[in-house]
Amino acid sequence: MFRDLFIWWKEDVLLKGALEGVDKMIEIIKEMFNFATESFLGEVKDEHEIYEMDKSVNMLQVETRKKVYEHLSINPKQDITSSLVLTTIVIDIERVGDYSKNIYELALIHTPESDIRYYDEAKRLAHHVSSLLSQVGMALRDGDVEKAKKLMEEKTWICKKCDGIIKGIIIDETMGVKAAVVYSLLFRYLKRVSAHIGNIASSIVNPFYRIGFKPE
Fold it and tell me: What pLDDT, on a 0 to 100 scale, did the predictor assign at position 211?
């Protein structure tokens, strides 16, 4: 689906601007996610304008919708399906920013403890999800269907992995309450970020009505 957007819209000023807005949103949420997870893991201690970046993502979402709306107002019979795709995926992109903020807020109340058995798993999954964020941006720009399918498969694996870890935390009687709550939330947020990445990838593979679902 997204391959068509680049073919059809590259000459349209409004829609080219909308696509550029999506690209900027993805770059910002990548930085937000990386900073948030690195903060949780104790890998960075610098201050960061994560809340200002979140505002920028929100503004880009509004501007993207506005450009699509203006385009359809001028050309009401053109590119309706593709316009719906674009306005759908910006929601998923914005939600990744929100979950990145949530992870950062966990970092503010949690001192990383590398001796906790879930620390290494959290680090591994966080790096994996970060890689998916980079790949989904490239897949969108290239309209790469095969890469998008692989991302959807990776998303499914990560979501199942996070669910299994959360269940393990719940039954782990040796883990302190605070650590259990914090790590359960972290893996839940990683799962949700992965799910939204999968939704974005599905826009490349699926028709509009199946965005967010497995290919038929």
Answer: 65
Query: What's the CATH code of the domain at 82?
Result: 1.20.58.220
How many domains are there within the chain? 1
Residue 215 lies in a domain: no
Q: What is the pLDDT of residue 210?
A: 61
Which DSSP helix (H) or strand (E) runs through 200?
Answer: helix 177-205
DSSP assignments along 30-75, one per residue: HHHHHHHHHHHTTS------HHHHHHHHHHHHHHHHHHHHHHHHHS
- Residue-number span of the structural domain to which 173 is assigned: 2-210
CA dihedral for 42, 43, 49, 54, sign (positive or negative): negative
Residue 72 within a domain: yes
* In-domain check, residue 216: no
Q: What is the largest CA-CA distance in the chain?
A: 63
- CA 114 – CA 123 distance, rounded (Å): 10
In a domain, 141, yes or no: yes
Return the residue matching tokens 């990548």. 30
145-148 long-range Cβ contacts below 8 angstroms, 24+ apart: 145/3, 145/204, 145/205, 148/201, 148/202, 148/204, 148/205
- For 74-119, the pLDDT digits (tens) are 776 666 777 788 888 899 999 999 999 999 999 988 876 655 779 9
